[in-house]
Design brief:
This protein is an alpha/beta fold. It has two domains: 134 residues, HAD superfamily/HAD-like (Rossmann fold), CATH 3.40.50.1000; 67 residues, DNA polymerase, domain 1 (Orthogonal Bundle), CATH 1.10.150. It has twelve helices and nine strands. A five-stranded parallel β-sheet has the order 7-6-3-8-9, with helices on both faces. The protein has a two-stranded antiparallel sheet with strand order 1-2. Helix 11 links the parallel strand 8 and strand 9. Helix 1 packs across helix 2 and helix 3 runs antiparallel to helix 4. The longest helix has 12 residues. It starts with a strand and ends in a 10-residue tail after the last helix.
Length: 216
């Protein structure tokens, strides 16, 4: 597991679009149905009413789940109960199975696994249960709403390194967003840009990580 004279001890995975795919349209379709609105129309309405800033406040921990749901209900005029809004908002994830297989293989080989995700309390609570068979293998789960900072802020990567117990240079961060990859590098970690599981496996093998080489 060596890169030069440094061995990789910890692999830090992003969650959204790496460990699991997600689609806000799933939630928007459910939330918009009682209003007679398509998910697309509801998302347009949400955007015009400042939803992006509200979401960033939620994922940075500045707004809690109850306040987020209450604000969503008022801004969008949703008739559903807060508990129903929460349920509709939460369930938007599907497993990226090839990446799950890679993570299990790394864990089986003794590599430390950490999750590093920009997320919020509602989504995190849901997907930790949904993907328990994989995430229970991770040493730590680092969530932006708990850190109080979102990638690519340096504080986020510092928390990931801290909980890993490894030096930053012995951690590799995997993310589908280039700005987050660059943020990890700036914080002293090694980093890989995620595109697909086949390329990720090749990149991890190139770093010397203990994975079975694909048959040719």
């Amino acid at each position: 597991m060596e890169v030069g004279d440094l061995s990789i001890e910890t692999v830090i995975f992003d969650f959204g679009n790496v460990i699991a795919h997600f689609d806000y349209r799933i939630a928007a379709n459910r939330l918009g149905e009682p209003l007679g609105l398509s998910g697309e129309r509801l998302m347009e309405r949400a955007t015009s009413l400042g939803f992006r800033n509200l979401l960033m406040d939620f994922e940075s921990g500045r707004v809690g789940p109850d306040a987020f749901v209450a604000e969503l209900k008022v801004r969008l005029g949703l008739p559903q109960s807060p508990s129903q809004i929460t349920a509709d908002w939460a369930d938007i994830f599907t497993a990226n199975e090839p990446v799950h297989a890679l993570a299990h293989e790394l864990g089986d080989s003794g590599v430390k696994l950490v999750l590093g995700s920009n997320t919020n309390a509602i989504h995190a609570s849901h997907f930790v249960r949904q993907f328990d068979s994989l995430l229970s293998r991770f040493e730590s789960l680092v969530f932006s709403h708990e850190v109080g900072a979102m990638k690519p802020a340096d504080a986020f990567y510092r928390r990931c390194v801290e909980v890993s117990g490894s030096p930053a240079a012995r951690c590799v961060f995997i993310d589908d967003m280039l700005e987050n990859v660059e943020g990890a590098k700036a914080a002293g970690l090694q980093a890989l840009h995620f595109d697909n599981a086949v390329k990720l496996k090749a990149d991890l093998l190139a770093l010397g990580l203990p994975l079975n080489r694909p048959k040719v």
